Amino acid sequence: MTMSTSPLESAKTAVETSSGLDIESIREDFPILAVRPYGKPLVYLDNAATSQKPRQVIDAIRRYYEGENANVHRGIHYLSQVATEKFDAAREKVQHFVNAAHSHEIVLTSGNTESINLVASSYGGAFLGEGDEILLTHMEHHSNIVPWQLLREKMGVVLKIAPVNDDGEIIMEDFERLLGPKTKFVSVVYVSNALGTINPVKEIVRLAHAAGAVVLLDSAQAVPHLTVDVQDIDCDFLSFAPHKMFGPTGIGVLYAKAELLERMPPYKGGGDMIKSVTFEKTLYNDLPFKFEAGTPNIAGVIGLGAAVDYLTNIGMDKIAAREAELLSYGTRILESIDGLRIIGRAKEKASVLSFIMESAHPHDIGQILDQEGIAIRAGHHCTQPLMQRFGIPATARASLSFYNTEEELDALGAALHKVNEVFG
Q1: Catalytic pick from 382, 410, 417, 418?
Q2: Among 313, 336, 359, residue at a domain's last position
Q3: Is 382 a catalytic residue?
């Protein structure tokens, strides 16, 4: 006799046998997952804000401080040589990870936000002027809005905004219509942090280039979840945040085509971005060091290299497949909750579940879940214009990573039922 199973039980059986990843072994790599907030198992579903760090990254940073600590590109002594070798190797790892043509196309910054500001200040300040149009979309993070507004105040550029539909997808007909002879720059999020939408970046780049525009892709939410190939996409700039891809905070990456970096003026002045200095003239260093003034976050860069190794060893295709399973499973759970509405229903979507509930404000949802040991994000997610587009002040957001489990999503569902019991 065959026993019947619920749709969720059926889905759970399927994902346990199809991912190809040993999730329990992977979870052992993340020591923080053993934390028990309020005496309950930690369910960490705030990966879009920052991901947790595996032992391999933590150990690489500790090894640097314990046995390799020295400044890079300056000393001739042993420690400096070891630190420099690991620092430079990390840049090459990033180059291969995103398939850049050259390691000098990888500029190391303090974060994704600084990477975008670097482009806006250096490229925008040098090559954009009054009346030139910059095309953004309604789903941009504040870090991909405010730098261009600052440039507008300084240079008189014009910002155009491509709308999104009710599913949270760019309306490509409107995007293409907004491209014109005055469009000089396009800056678009690759994957929305608030909706999970995966934008058609190759088509966006193709259309923008056909209009004569340069393109930046804010890829903070793409690089942790997808295989990113800058040569295949043909973007001019691409930025991302290692702390969202299992690396440390305080470090960022900007990929840029070498011919653009050669033309761009320095963003900051100081050590390591110079070849020689007199009071009359400074000769700037070669790429990428022209854009890396001062002592860098050496430990952070080494940790970034370890994070790239970790993801490469697992395989981005396997990570994407696992997270698609979790997204499907989690979507079914949310759809079973009375009065819950998912915000963001794009056909192409990463593992983000944003939602609102009739019974409670997102902040109240977050507090109830926190008491159950479940970490989510509640708020506007630094995308206030997008919230305004949907006519809501905020959402609750569960953002998933490959180390999450179906049992954790079951716990999320149970806690959301409790929200309805408390507030409904």
Answers
A1: 382
A2: 313
A3: yes
Task: Give the DSSP letter string of 236-275.
Answer: SEEEE-GGGTTS-SS-EEEEE-HHHHHHSPPSS-STTSEE
Query: How many domains is the chain built from?
Result: 2
Cβ–Cβ under 8 Å, residues 226 and 191: yes
For residue 52, is it within any domain?
A: no
Q: Which two tokens stand for residue 205?
A: 């780049």
**Residue 356, SS3?**
strand
Task: Taking residues 77-101, report their average pLDDT.
Answer: 97
pLDDT digit string, tens, across residues 282-314? 888 889 999 999 999 999 999 999 999 999 999
Same domain, 267 and 343: no
CATH code for position 157? 3.40.640.10
Domain that holds residue 296: 57-313
pLDDT in tens, 175-214: 999 999 999 999 999 999 999 999 999 999 999 999 999 9
Q: Is residue 51 part of a domain?
A: no
Quick check: is 133 in a domain?
A: yes
Residues in CB range of 125: below 8 A, 6 or more apart: 151, 154, 155, 265
Nearest CA among 261, 223, 241, 273 for reference residue 101: 261
Q: Which of 244, 278, 313 is the last residue of a domain?
A: 313
Backbone angles phi, psi at 139, to 5 degrees: -100, 15
3-state secondary structure of 95: helix
- Tens digits of residue pLDDT in 315-363: 999 999 999 999 999 999 999 999 999 999 999 999 999 999 999 999 9
What pTM, to 2 d.p., does this model score? Answer: 0.93
Q: Verify that 281 and 322 share a domain, yes or no.
A: no
202, 226, 200: which is closest to 351 by C-alpha? 226
Q: Are residues 372 and 229 in the same domain?
A: no
Whether residue 336 sits in one domain with residue 306:
no
Exposed/middle/buried for 306, CB within 10 Å: 0-12, 13-18, 19+? buried
- Do 229 and 291 have their domain in common? yes
The pLDDT tens digits of the residues spanning 219-230 come to 999 999 999 999
